[in-house]
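The record is passed on directly below:
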Amino acid sequence: MQNTKTDKKKNQINRREMLKKVGGAALAGMMLPMMGNAASNNPQTTSKPNIVFILSDDHRWDAMSCMGHPFIKTPNMDRIAREGVHFENAFVTTSLCSPSRASFLTGQYANSHGVKNNLTPWDESSVTFMELLKEQGYDTAFIGKWHMPGKALPNLRGVDHFVTITHEGGQGVYFDCPLVVDGVKQERKGKYITEDLTDFALDYIDREHDNPFCLYLSHKAVHFGFLPPKELNDLYSDVDLKLPKEADYWIPYTNHHAFFGGLVPMNISYRNYCEAVVAMDQQMGRVLDKLEEKNILDDTVFVYISDNGHFFGEHGLYDKRLAYEESIRIPFMVRYPKGIKNPGRKESNMVLNVDIAPTLLDLAGVSKPDYMQGESLAPMLQDGNTKGRDSWLYEYFPDYPMPTPGIESVRTQNYKYIQYQKDKRPKELFDLRNDPREKQNIINTEAGKKLAAELKTELARLKKETRS
């Protein structure tokens, strides 16, 4: 029998109350029966790892030097990929800030956690992985961008230290951005937001911790605005940006609709974006240095990931939301020597933002709750031969006034099928092996018609599965 959404929320609340009543020692027996349980596979069985989870905004998967970008240099991201596992096929299930961020925290698809776009509020009965870690003895800190509708300051159960942004609707600005530090607003004159949030993160790492800690560092960068710090402002002023031929400098949202991004020419936006990526990489290096200074880097699960990608002219598009690779595919690297076999691997299995919460719980020796829809990636960290998913569901829920219709898509390793709701756009099918940039819609070919029917059936199955 399928659970309703209300039943899921009740189950989450019941689990939370159960955890409060039962001591951590009594739960030890419950922590073992997990898929690829970290406590059994991990050489470090006597202590739990620290967790540093760094989340950026709008950073697409190929905007790093370790992905062969023609000029961006990201030595610290490259280091994480070199010393850990680089998931080259990582995706978001909804390519928009608020839904994706809720999926990271809850391990659920948007239809389950309820944050379907940037307008629908966060449900405060939702349980985050940070709350579950806190129940198991972790010190916890959330530093940075919350950016989900609802209360400006959500009641984040299980978070000891909460530094966030309410300015500009929670989006924040790159310079002089006020912050709310444990409920108290602070003016931050003269501060660059990426560096400022990192300063708070370093201060937290520097504190005396009697327990393992989980630090959730959520950057504004590299979201629209695309402003680097002054010292990097001309870093790429003379490079060939290699924008796609179909890029329109002045009407950059879609082929049919203008967007406010058109107030700034595409070449300027992209140059600033690339420089802001470098700034974020530099700040990541400061976090790595602090962990090394404290001699705890190798005892720390270090994760870098983004909430979605971004178009810069591909398909004649700007922004995100649509189901093409530039929008839905994200950078994702994990460094944890005590939990990774053969570091330096590139993992080709398809992994999702909903997998993050189960993975971090698994590595901390905590069982995945039944309501989490993602899967732990700890087995892939341990064994490069672990089989992943064959297909997955992408959804976009309209958020007026943006001129993007509802979208449903299924992606496999080799193909992608896309259909639109209440819109005249044709359905699309792409052969990703021979057409990785999705330029040739093959849905009207003889082979495409047959394949589209199969993928449409798979889409229906995935929708049912993610709503159960």
In short: The mean pLDDT is 89. The domain at 34-390 is CATH 3.40.720.10 (Alkaline Phosphatase, subunit A). The chain is about 30% helix and 15% strand.
